[in-house]
Specification:
The chain is an alpha/beta fold. Helices cover about 20% and strands about 30% of the residues. The strands form three sheets. A seven-stranded mixed sheet has the order 10-9-8-7-11-12-15, sandwiched between helices. A six-stranded antiparallel sheet has the order 4-3-6-1-2-5. It has a two-stranded antiparallel ribbon with strand order 13-14. Bound molecules: flavin-adenine dinucleotide and FE2/S2 (inorganic) cluster. Flavin-adenine dinucleotide (FAD) binds next to strand 4, strand 5 and helix 2.
């Protein structure tokens, strides 16, 4: 039997499109596989990504937003790229509707290190729309088969405005359920907002999660990361116990073309998930 060619995309169909934000430039696309065999072979873990391709436009790496505990489909939350010049693939996707067909290659990259996270308290920190693979991790940990494998789960998630929060239904569900402490914040509320206001780093400082047997999983815009890390160092989290996910320009996604390397690491295949201790070993050219 010959090995499956990793460059050949699998055909998938858009089965659902969800408008996530009031600016209408971020949508969650649910895809179902057109071949049952592809669906069975697509075994992923939270933190991995896939290459989505549109004929005549190109391919884009996108983090997987659904959890493997949600069988039958795979979801991606995608921002229409490019304020001035539209991003080729993401703009074409945003113009597609349910029933549209595209190609999907993956799953690619490493995942959030589930075995390392087991039996630990998990602090998930997200900012803006970089919450997608964190949502996958949260839904994975909260699943009834998995919840007892992890300690306390704290989520701190922020967006600039209430209208820019992703997954609003899920957030309010998590806020109501047991076994998870969900703290949502916005930089600036509106007339209807009754929740917390404040930047993510300040909220992390106020919530002050204990570093004892804990791992922080942090994703967000660079400015948020820059101001959040010192808070976690001050709280006593070590660099080994702070994880993040990197985004780099990519081509093959499988460690062959050299497009995404930082020093001796390929972000596509050694990452995109790294601990802060691992990132510190790399040259500062990213
Ligand atoms: C591991 C990983 C995970 C990711 N996860 C997500 C995710 O979950 N959701 C998500 O939305 N994105 C995600 N991204 C980012 C996503 O891959 C990019 O936004 C996407 O590839 C853009 O593709 P595109 O074809 O739409 O844009 P492109 O056509 O490649 O353009 C990208 C940008 O470059 C600009 N540009 C293009 N051509 C030119 C030019 N000639 N001159 C100047 N500027 C130009 C465009 O205006 C645009 O801003 C992820 C990236 C990585 C690496
Ligand atoms: S994208 Fe080709 S090596 Fe990473």
């Amino acid at each position: 039997m010959t090995a499956k060619n990793p460059y050949i995309p699998m055909p998938v169909e858009i089965s659902k499109v969800i408008d996530e934000v009031d600016t209408q430039d971020i949508k969650t696309f649910r895809f179902t596989f057109l071949n049952k065999e592809d669906e069975a072979n697509f075994k992923y873990m939270p933190g991995q990504f896939a290459e989505l391709s549109i004929y005549g436009k190109g391919e884009s790496p996108i983090g997987i937003a659904s959890s493997p505990t949600q069988p039958g489909y795979v979801e991606f939350t995608i921002q229409r790229a490019g304020a001035i010049l539209p991003g080729l693939v993401t703009a074409a996707l945003h113009d597609m509707e349910e029933g549209g067909k595209i190609g999907l290659r993956g799953p690619l990259g490493n995942s959030w290190p589930i075995e390392f996270l087991e039996k630990k308290n998990i602090v998930v920190v997200g900012g803006g729309f970089a919450f997608t693979t964190l949502r996958s991790l949260i839904n994975y940990m909260l699943h009834q088969d998995n919840r007892s494998r992890f300690g306390e789960i704290t989520i701190i998630y922020g967006a600039r405005t209430p209208g820019l929060l992703l997954y609003k239904d899920e957030l309010s569900h998590w806020q109501k359920r047991d076994g998870i402490n969900t703290v949502i914040t916005v930089d600036k509320g509106d007339a209807t907002w009754k929740g917390r206001e404040g930047f993510v780093p300040a909220v992390c400082k106020a919530v002050a999660p204990s570093p004892k047997n804990a791992v922080a999983v942090i994703c967000g815009p660079p400015i948020m990361i820059e101001f959040t890390l010192p808070v976690f160092f001050e709280l006593g989290f070590s660099k080994e116990n702070i994880l993040t996910s990197m985004e780099m320009r990519m081509k093959c996604g499988i460690g062959k073309c050299g497009r995404c390397n930082v020093g001796y690491k390929y972000v596509c295949s050694d990452g995109p998930v790294f601990s802060l201790a691992e990132l510190e070993e790399l040259p500062r050219d990213f």
